[in-house]
Write a structure and sequence with these properties.
The protein has 8 helices and 5 strands. The model has no long low-confidence stretch (mean pLDDT about 95). The protein has helices spanning about 5-15, 20-30, 40-50, 60-70, 80-90, 90-95, 100-110, 120-125, and strands spanning about 5, 35, 75, 115-120, 135. Helix 8 (about 120-125) links the parallel strand 4 and strand 5. It has a 5-stranded parallel sheet with strand order 3-2-1-4-5. It is an alpha/beta fold. Helix content is about 50%, strand content about 10%. The chain has one domain (about 5-125): 5'-nuclease (Rossmann fold, 3-Layer(aba) Sandwich), CATH 3.40.50.1010.
Length: about 140
Amino acid sequence: MSRFLDTSVILASLDPDEPHHTACDRLVAAGGHRIHVHALAETFSILTGGRQGRRLGAALAVRLLEDSVLPYVQTVSPSGRDTMSALAECESRGVRGGAVYDWLHLAAARKAGAEALVTLDVRDFQSLARAGDPRIEMP
């Protein structure tokens, strides 16, 4: 099955203290899944920014991503036109403010032909999904 992983899954896979760590780590380590390239920047931001009790040095955050994520996933980089097309849908999808980042993950998953988008933030993504979008599921 073609799965797209969002940032919450990547973060949980890297944090052994996270309640969903085991499931997320297994999912990432299984390989073959895709992520929006922006998930790398979001993960880096959270790991280094002090939010959610995390504050790693930049070099360690990069090493974690390089060693524990990139070997196991394929990154998807939507084009500028793809991004603008997704942004043009925001009003009809009820997307405002910071929800645009979740929406861009979902739009990238849809464009990549993913059957499912895997997230720990199911409710947030379900509010954006419509018929024809990848199924939203927990790890």
